[in-house]
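Hi,

I'm pasting everything inline rather than attaching a file, because the server keeps stripping attachments. The sequence lines come first, and each chain or strand is labelled.
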Amino acid sequence: MKRASWQEYQKDIADDKYYYARSCIRQNFFPGSERAFLDILRGDLGRDVMDDPIHTSCTGIGYHSDVVPLETIMTVVARQFALMGEAGYENFISSCITSFGIYTEILSTWEEFPETEERTREYLYKATGRELVKPRSLAHTSDIVFHFRDEIARKAKRKLVNVYTGRPLRVVEHIGCHYAKIFPKSGIGGSEFPYVLAGMIESWGGEVVDYPERRHCCGFGFRNYLVQANRGYSIANSQKKLESMSPYKPDFIVGNCPGCSMFLDRWQYAIAEMEGTTYGADGQGIPVLTYEEMAGLVLGYDPWELGMQMHQVDVEPLLDKMGVEYDPAAKYLGRDGRYIGKPERAAVNNGCQRAIYDIKL
Amino acid sequence: MGKYFDMLLEDIRVQEGLRSCMNCGVCTGVCPAAEFYNYDPRQIVNIVLTRDDDEIERLMRSDVIWYCGECMSCRPRCPRGNTPAYVIQGLRTLSQRLGLFVESEKGRQQLAIKRLIGDNILRTGYCIVPRNVVPALHPEQGAVWEWIIDHDKELYGRFTPVYGSDGAGALRKIDDESMQELHRIFEVSGGKDFYATIERHSERKAREMGYDGADDDYMMHTYTTNSEQHY
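And the predicted assembly:
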């Protein structure tokens, strides 16, 4: 496949008036990112985003761990779309890659198997009295940030540039399997050359790292993480990616999917504790950001207001490289500004002996 | 001959994902589960295509169908347009409907997933909420997660005004009417029946294995047991 062929994989992204569906995983692990997305869209870009207080989970984690049947998730999704219609919106945006894959798949299934749409409409009406309204456009929230990447660049307070060397920061992007592997044409750049995060990185001054396992799964594997006995699968697949990217000396990883971002962060902790191995500079971990955090830093947001204290791998080395001014003590403040203590120290932040980063390619 | 094959084909995912296989093995080459387990999605497709009831039943009783992570990496790569992961989804669904999942160590884990994720959906409206990710069961979540859970109201309160309460925002409490709608959706679309099927067959198997039914001890057994026979 020729690299230029990704250009066939473009999609229309609505310019305004979005119905926003939250993510179970993102709000648990990156609540600051969800807030930042809304602040950036509304405050910095002046867009209308509906944050509906009555939508539920899409139930996608239950579906992909095979306890929620297809007919059930279809009806739950139909309710989300019905709520969008009732609120007067047509452009549905999802903050979760698992959900995005499911919304994409279900819309496609309804096209290909019309009897499933008919059955879903009946179930929805019987259960809720609501009428299914299909969205005019469907996008992941990163598609929206990508759509406005040049506008964000024009408003940038900082660039993805190392202030000590003047060189672009080296960024590993991980788009998450369900963004484009289920329906490649639903993702910008498709599944082979996805451009959604790479486009942001390039627009904001950074350099995208290419490495052998760039398209490998983060290792979530649904039941392979959810059940304790299966987690060897999850850590082993994350490790495969980390071992592959480390010699390319990334300054940070940016994730499309909240689950992937969390796993690539937490498994670095576990590997450092278990084996004394780290993958970043100076024997430390590689910071893992969400794209909302990356955009927020570029726009001048405070890292602790973005929620970056909830990462296991410390982000301060990256903040220093970017020239971000921050109050180190504010990292440990609660909602009322009171000090709430610090997490226990972790090997991944202390400098390990066995670092892959220093291997010369 | 073909009874189980016909049942599988009632699942539109199997209709969509199962065509003739040219045995190129690309699906296996890119498969994260094949890297880790003794697992070969190409063989799964081949076995189902034999339409042999004994072979397909053996699959549905085995650990093998539970290794896939449903990452869907196989889907865009197959030159024939197959999706082995869709076939897996069909096999897993049928294995649970027929009660065959309890005959394998990995299959029995469905009870833990049903209770930890499935029941939580009907309790909270979310697949997970922070306090479900119990640090003792999730040591990999690290020191930062213990800190977050110990100070959850203080920390989440920095980012959302509605942590566990009414209104719009992250981690809001989902209102009673929406929860009732969710419950009714699960009733009319078969979700609750499916949960009950998992419980019923787990109860039977738990007693067969010497437990006092599918209680917390049995569930934790399914959640933590790894015979190390999978590699």
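Chain B has two domains: 3-99, 107-224.

If the labels don't parse on your end, tell me and I'll reformat.
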